[in-house]
Queue: 2 jobs
Job 1
Amino acid sequence: MGADDVTEIVPPEGGTMRDLLRAGSDGDRVDLGAIDPRSMPGLPAAAGAGGGRKAWARRQVEVIGAELGRQQEMLFAAAKAAQPGAATSAPTTGGPELGGDRPGRVLLVLQAMDCGGKDGTIKRVAGAMNPLGLHIRSFGPPTAEELRHDFLWRIRRALPPPGYVGIFNRSHYEDVLVARVDGLVPEATWRARYDEINEFERELTAGGVTVVKVMLHISRAEQGERLLDRLTEPRKYWKYNPGDIDARSRWDDYQAAYAEALARCGPAGAPWFVVPADRKWYRDWAVAHLLRETFDTLDLGYPPADFDVAAERARLRGLRTGQGERRVNEA
Ligand code: AMP
Ligand code: MG
């Protein structure tokens, strides 16, 4: 059977992706060295072997994507039903308010070294969902205004409104990663941030935000290949930043910073997942499943009508045969 024939979601093998990829949070470091960036936890035998796996996984991402789109629509519909206008109004400048009785939202946090595949993941996985319900935000070096506030200020403002699926392309974790490695703030400052982040994420969870944190785990060798590609292919120059080589030269420091951030900032409701990411097709397949499983925990459904369906049907039939409809159509 070819990859194109499979129209059902084939479950991962050996457990859920949430179980297989959850970062072990014992101690104060996650042992990233023990996770092979080329490994493929959960990939079922049905994927086949060799080059066929890639086509199979790409097709599965499309199939899972349709399901993600359906789940996203239910999230959006629930928010709209709970609070007319909520899911359609633009977020306020102060960031959407949190509250236990507010309808749900999902927030996917993507972190990775340069070339780790954050953009590609968003394109492939989020690309399957309805743009109407997505809230995608990227974080670069803080602006002068952002620097005048605490590090979570810009993050709060970027939260998805109720009913939306938010995606953070980099996040508040940069403030314990690059800030630490580059010594942008004193150690006491970035160390204190672990607790601040945990407190913040507990607040999010309590406020109805389902947080999924994903580290795309690539090898130094793979990053080298991808950087070279960006320097070889003129169409990719725009993705390259000379600073990437500086960050690469601090590879071990970054891995240590990730290892500690992942271990220290995994409050119960906001776990970290480490996705082996040297193979792009596996990465996308894994993240798609993580999202699907996360939606499943929300047990979403379509909201019931808040109007009399039979009466509305009768009105519609009346209009169809009567004068009213013709007048509407002619107008
Ligand atoms: P890119 O994701 O390739 O557009 O790069 C964004 C850059 O912004 C990376 O070099 C990050 O390290 C940097 N960046 C993001 N957040 C922060 C932060 N809080 N402090 C300093 N640099 C940051
Ligand atoms: Mg970059």
Note: The radius of gyration is 22 Å.
Job 2
Amino acid sequence: MICLGIEGTAHTISVGVVKDLNEKCKVLSNVIKIYKPEQGGIHPREAANHHTKFVADLIKDSVKKANIGFTDIDLVSFSKGPGMGPCLRTAATAARALALSLDKPIMGVNHCVAHLEIGRGTLSDCKDPVLLYVSGANTQIIAFAEGKYRVFGETLDIGIGNCLDKFGRTVGLDFPCGPAIEQFALKWKKYLDLPYSIKGMDIAFSGLLTAAEQYYKSGERLEDICYSIQETTFAALTEVTERAMAHTEKDEVLLGGGVAANKRLREMVQIMAKERKASFFVPSKDLCIDNGAMIAWLGVLMHNSGIRMKVENSFIDQRFRTDMADVTWRD
Ligand code: AMP
Ligand code: MG
């Protein structure tokens, strides 16, 4: 089975083609185009216009790079949610048009679950992980329990990537700001106290963001503030992930989302995993960020487990929560 998947939940429009090799995923192509606002945050309509402009070329490009023909495609999948309405609609519309023109089935998939399944599908020993999903808009700790992917902890306000980007914007860095913050943090001299707010299993970042901005206004070194933001937020994320692993008795941890590129976050989670004698996994960068290949792969899993979707019912769902997805393809 070969599936073409279209991702379009937020700033990224991406098309990937994957092949099912005995329940493991072979990525044939994965082309990604990221919308960068000229100033400020992401405007959903502007991002959707960007996706409209590029999606057709990305589809052609992904098929070409996969070295297949359009007639080789057995299934078309798209990100059903969660995400920004205009962006989701653009990806879904492209998927519907393609599925109808090829006369092939369509599948809308949960974006957060796709981040986890691409780890299981492409990393050979990754079988039942706790996922620390750290992206711009989303921050969730997800694991499989009693028939569903459940959220064991999440942000109560903004995503960790958003927190980094908002701080970066305040101090004049280009979007996305995470990579620059990581570089500044390497040159730290002192740790500055920031609010460490974990509530139960959930985390809040906006108080920390305000405090960090105040440090900047009061003249503290940017390097020290960047370091302190990373140390504080990543420690909180690692703590909640560890608690989820203890609770679910799982011995694998997987990273996903754009912030998973950060070496310090990887290091902290890796140390935690080692101390628990657990395995640590992180997919390749293009499979960590929002991408079409993971959408294609979850489409394959759902289709193979018997799920079918009609074009006329292929709605998007901006608030499609991780635990709303029926998991029929594993136990
Ligand atoms: P996503 O929403 O999953 O596509 O991820 C985008 C987010 O990842 C943005 O908020 C970026 O600032 C963040 N990001 C990318 N690279 C890094 C990095 N090296 N360190 C921290 N954050 C990063
Ligand atoms: Mg994502």
Note: Residues 12, 135-136, 161, 164-165, 176-179, 182, 257-259, 261-262, 289-290 surround adenosine monophosphate (ligand 1) (CB under 6 Å).
